[in-house]
Amino acid sequence: MRFQAVYAPAVLSLGLLVACSGGGDGEGPIVPPPPAPVEYVEKHMPSGWWGDAQKLEEGRKLFLGETNPDVNCASCHGKDGKPVKAGATDFRNPERMKLYSDAVWFWRISEGVPNTKMKGWKSKLSDDDRWKLVLFERNFGLPGKVWSVEKNQWVEAGAK
């Protein structure tokens, strides 16, 4: 009985701390990703692509594994950007996703994310296909936003 009186509140508090510490999305605190390495820092969405409906649709098909069955982002990140596998980034969280420049996003798709299950896709996808994924994926958490190289941030489309 004494064990329950002394340790139960501590165990309950620890459980609440663990359950509530992820900012609500299970991914932990929202912190900026590392900066893109030198070979990626100057890479940006190809000119004219932000508003290209055909490229967006091609990105959707890539994301869902319809174009290349070896690549199916939705199998981890979910068809709607809500992760279906533990550890996958929730693309619907705008506070997290606004911290990823287009160059960082492209780099992570290309090279993968160290110490996670996210592998790099540059051996299976062309540069254009990886940009189509960036174009599609940003719509989950940043709809209507485009990356402004001049402002170094996501801005409303048309507000560059």
Topology, please?
Layout: H1 2-20, H2 38-41, H3 53-63, H4 74-77, H5 94-97, H6 102-111, H7 127-141, E1 145-148, E2 153-156
Antiparallel strand pairs: 1-2
Describe the protein in words.
- The structure is a single chain.
- A hairpin with a 4-residue loop joins β1 (145-148) and β2.
- A two-stranded antiparallel ribbon has the order 1-2.
- It contains seven helices and two strands.
- Residues 3-24 have low confidence and may be disordered.
- It has 160 residues and is mainly alpha-helical.
**Second-tier CATH architecture of the largest domain:** Orthogonal Bundle
**Biggest sheet overview:** 2 strands, antiparallel
Structural domain count: 2
Helix content: 40-55%
Q: How are the strands of the biggest sheet laid out side by side?
A: 1-2
Q: Name the CATH superfamily classification of the largest domain.
A: Cytochrome c-like domain
Q: What is the structure about, briefly put?
A:
The chain has 160 residues and is mainly alpha-helical. It is built from 7 helices and 2 strands; from the N terminus they run H-H-H-H-H-H-H-E-E.
Which features characterize this protein?
Cytochrome Bc1 Complex, Chain D, domain 2, mainly alpha, 7 helices, two-stranded antiparallel ribbon, 160 residues, 2 domains, disordered N terminus
